[in-house]
Design a protein that fits this description.
Blueprint: H1 7-23, H2 32-48, H3 67-79, H4 88-101, H5 104-115, E1 121-124, E2 140-144, E3 147-154, E4 165-171, E5 182-188, E6 194-199, E7 208-219, E8 223-224, H6 230-243, H7 246-268, H8 278-306, H9 314-337, H10 353-365, H11 373-383
Helix pairs in contact: 1-3, 3-7, 4-5, 4-6, 7-8, 7-9, 8-9, 9-10, 9-11
Length: 393
């Protein structure tokens, strides 16, 4: 691994830090809808200053930033505790997909409004019987003249209730092999025939939703790539999802580790768990070492990519590692915090115990979205260990 920051990289890092120090909004509203609206204004400002999608070409609102500059930006953004942009699926998944597969007209129509959050996007991949087996999508799109007519359902659609558009996998040829009859379609969420039903989670939030399509008409010009190329395009999109922000992810996870140590120290003063306890120290020490392993794994992948090498299965390795680490870490945190960690009533000395309950619940989600842990293990068994697929000699 050879990852050396140049003088230009260091200057770029200083520029980002300076900008974030004077620009990041604090004390955002806690109400879900108000918080979303405030973060939408924040993304608009970021876009006006060309700090969203910085690796995109300048002609579409980016900076043409290098891979290492993008890594530096993501790392500093996380360190600054800046608000998550509300159009993350548009910026992180749809935008790169359109840049690779979209027509010039599609790029001109959609990309800038993705960056400014003028149009919010959600992802329509999962269905009740097509989660891990994504090729089993049944939502159909029939070509009728210059339009597609869409009927079917999507589920676990993140931020669908706020979204203006959805990029969806639809079955356009039910007679073709299931990987071949799928297309990638851009659908206006304000179209007649679309119904969004929020799904309330254990935390009381409704970040996900079911989306139903009944005779929804979509212009044929909203087809991305060729008819039936949806599987290939989707695999590229998922690659963006699984490989995104590795170093920044390690920064965020390290912050959770630091916060746990801080809260244990506060609770210790009130008779709670102690940092001097051998079991506590063992759990904290092990999780920190494992987190450092993840950080260096991401640096290795970044180094290879920066030198123009094909990165191979690293995205699956890192996605599996960090999601399983987070789940295991939160289980350790709950054991250490005991009843205080499981209460919504709040702990002494301003310890936000509700935060730990919420993060415990959410840590399970990381092992599911962007490809389940089981799927990642299957990928690694085939590509790294070269084990046969089930049922094949």
């Amino acid at each position: 691994m050879d990852l050396t920051w140049t003088a230009e990289d260091d200057a770029f890092r200083s520029e980002i830090r300076s900008y974030l120090e004077r620009s990041v909004p604090r004390d955002l509203p806690k109400d879900g809808d108000e918080n979303f609206a405030a973060r939408r204004e924040w993304q608009k400002k970021l876009a006006e200053d060309a700090w969203v999608g910085i690796h995109w070409p300048e002609q579409y609102g980016g900076r043409g930033a290098s891979l290492l500059q993008t890594v530096i930006f993501n790392e500093e953004y996380t360190k600054a505790a800046a608000p998550a942009i509300p159009n993350s699926l548009g910026v992180g998944l749809l935008g790169p997909t359109l840049l690779r597969f979209g027509t010039d007209a599609q790029k001109e129509r959609f990309l800038r409004k993705v960056l400014t959050a003028e149009e919010i996007w959600c992802q329509g991949f999962s269905e009740p019987n097509a989660g891990s087996d994504l090729a089993a999508v049944a939502c159909r799109a029939e070509r009728v003249g210059d339009e597609f007519v869409v009927n079917g359902q999507k589920i676990w659609t993140s931020q669908a209730k706020h979204s203006d558009w959805i990029f969806a996998l639809v079955r356009t040829d039910p007679e073709a092999p299931k990987h071949k009859g799928i297309s990638f379609l851009l659908i206006d969420m304000h179209s007649p025939g679309i119904e969004v039903r929020p799904l309330v989670e254990m935390t009381g939030e409704d970040l996900f939703a079911e989306v139903f399509f009944t005779d929804v008409k979509v212009p044929a010009e909203n087809l991305v790539g060729e008819l039936g190329d949806g599987w290939k395009i989707a695999m590229t999109t998922l690659g963006f999802e699984r490989g995104a922000g590795g170093l920044a992810q390690s920064v965020g996870l390290r912050k959770s580790w630091n916060d746990l140590v801080r809260d244990i120290a506060k609770l210790e003063e009130s008779g709670g768990p102690s940092l001097e306890n051998a079991s506590v120290r063992e759990k904290l020490g092990r999780s920190l070492v494992e987190l450092e392993v993840y950080r260096y794994s991401t640096l290795r992948a970044i180094s290879r990519a920066a030198m123009g090498e094909k990165t191979g299965p690293e995205a699956s390795i890192n996605k599996l590692y960090w999601s399983e680490w987070h789940k295991s870490f939160m289980e350790d945190a709950m054991q250490i915090l005991g009843s205080l960690g499981r209460s919504y009533d709040g702990g002494p000395d301003d310890v936000d115990t509700a935060r730990w309950v919420t993060e415990l619940y959410y840590s399970r989600a990381g092992t599911i979205y962007a490809g389940t842990s089981e799927i990642q293990r299957n990928i690694l068994s085939e590509l790294v260990l070269e084990l046969p697929k089930e049922g094949r000699p």
